[in-house]
Amino acid sequence: DSKEAIWEAHQRQQAKKMTTTRLLCSIIHGNLGHVTKWLHESGREHINPLLTASYVWNHTKVKHSPLSWAAEYGQLAIVEKLLKAKADPCPTGKEAKEGGVPLLLAATTKKEEAHLDTVMALLKAGADPNYKTKFRLTIVQHAKAVGHTKLAEIMGRHATFRDQEQEKPASMPHENFKRELGLRFLYYQII
């Protein structure tokens, strides 16, 4: 009886591991259908789990949330889907300490142009470009350091714009429209 219970527990653990691996692969390769299915089945309860990827070449393991993985690979449709499902664009705790901040990952990858829309989606969702990493640099400074000056400028302007908006109370519904219009203006002005 105990052997059967151990075997069933092992099977459940293996199934969970396979689901996690499949989810991670789906995010990286942009399989929106599988991510949507995951959200409907169990994801909403666990929208910010840490998914582990092992890198054989340097023997390290990296843990990020689904949103962070999608941001790093520039999967805009998946980023938007996860944000709509209430994924946290500003993680704290273990993920943030390990560098798994979605905006940081989107802003410092190798392909700047492919991630511009992802960065804008994260900024719109409330990601903080002035977040300081464990290296005591803001995400804006990290983007500049890797040569993404356009992204750094967009994020810097967004941070300034956001700080100004937070100082004055939004008393009318049209204030949100003005804020959205201001973000779009910044986006198209840089491009």
What is this structure's SSE topology?
Layout lengths: L1 H27 L3 H12 L7 E5 L4 E5 L1 H7 L3 H9 L9 H4 L4 H6 L8 H9 L14 H7 L3 H19 L6 H17 L1
Antiparallel strand pairs: 1-2
Helix pairs in contact: 2-4, 3-4, 4-7, 8-9, 9-10
Short structural description:
By secondary structure, the chain is mainly alpha-helical.
Number of DSSP-assigned strands: 2
Estimate the helix proportion, in percent. Answer: 55-70%
Molecular shape: elongated
Residues in β-strands, percent: 5-15%
Q: In sequence order, what are the helices and strands, one letter per element?
A: HHEEHHHHHHHH
Major sheet strand order: 1-2
In the predicted model, the low-confidence regions spanning at least 5 consecutive residues are: none
Given helix and strand content, the structural type is: mainly alpha
Rg calc: 19 Å
Measured distance between first and last alpha carbons: 66 Å
Largest sheet, strands/sense/barrel: 2 strands, antiparallel
Number of helices: 10
Average pLDDT reading: 78
Walk me through this protein's architecture.
The chain has 191 residues and is mainly α. It has helices spanning 2-28, 32-43, 66-72, 76-84, 94-97, 102-107, 116-124, 139-145, 149-167, 174-190; strands at residues 51-55, 60-64. It has a two-stranded antiparallel ribbon. The protein is elongated. The chain starts with a helix and ends with a helix.
